Every structure is written in C-alpha cells, then in structure tokens.
Amino acid sequence: MRVKGIVWLGTRTERFDEMREFFLRITGVAPRDEPGLAVFDLASGDRIEVLDPAVAESYMVAPVVGFLVDDVAAARAELESNGIEFIGPIHSGAGSTWSHFRAPDGHVYEITGLPGHPASAT
C-alpha cells in the first residue's frame, strides 16, 4: 500500500453553521448542502465535509482524514494483516470508495479510492 495524498477531511461538529461558514470563507468554494452536511469540492480534487452530529457516525470524535490509495480493498487487507481494526465495510458512492479504521493513536482515519483524482495517476 502506498498513500498518495490526503484527499478528504471530515469534521463532526456541534458548531455546524459556524464551521460551514469558516470553510466557505477560507476556500471560496460554495458547498453542496444536504441536511446536516456541507460538502466542499476543492479545485485540487480534494474534499472537505462538515457534518452535524445528528448525521455523522459517533466514532468521529476528531476530524477524520482520508488517505488516497489505488485499491481500497487491497490496502484494507494489508492493514488488517498488520493488526489494524476497521470499522464497518468498504463503502462506495459518487465514484469513490472508502473504509474507516482505528489507528494506533485511537483516532479514526480513512483509506479512500478516487479514480479521477489527479494523484491517482501517479
């Protein structure tokens, strides 16, 4: 497994409206809004998601980053063989795949597959 970049940041926050406005201000990107979710698709192909606790997974107690990998299933198998605990199945949607895991620091991270991302070609 080789990590090619950090392509996703998700933050679960009680201060949803303020964080939505913060990311709007610092990125200049108008978010795609859904109930309890603001999605900022950056020009780089990377994504920031602000999640209200009502819609976010309870294990998201700190910001979660997604590490870009070529093959989520293969990366997951490799990490599991090294004792890393995964949370739930591999998910897919909107052209991406992802799977959450608990790292040695106890926090949750994600491996992410984004076939169209510029770093996927490297």
Structure commentary:
The protein is of the alpha+beta class. It is 18% helix and 39% strand. The protein has an eight-stranded mixed sheet, with helices on one face. The longest helix is centred in the first third of the chain and has 12 residues, at 16-27. The protein contains two helices and eight strands. It has one domain (5-121): 2,3-Dihydroxybiphenyl 1,2-Dioxygenase, domain 1 (Roll), CATH 3.10.180. The mean pLDDT is 93. The two termini are 14 Å apart. The protein is globular.
- Helices, by number, come to 2
CATH superfamily: 2,3-Dihydroxybiphenyl 1,2-Dioxygenase, domain 1
Can you tell me the CATH architecture? Roll
Secondary-structure class: alpha+beta
What's the overall geometry? globular
- Rg result: 14 Å
Short description:
The chain is α+β, with helices and mostly antiparallel strands.
Name the features:
2,3-Dihydroxybiphenyl 1,2-Dioxygenase, domain 1, eight-stranded mixed beta sheet, single chain, 122 residues, globular, 2 helices, alpha+beta
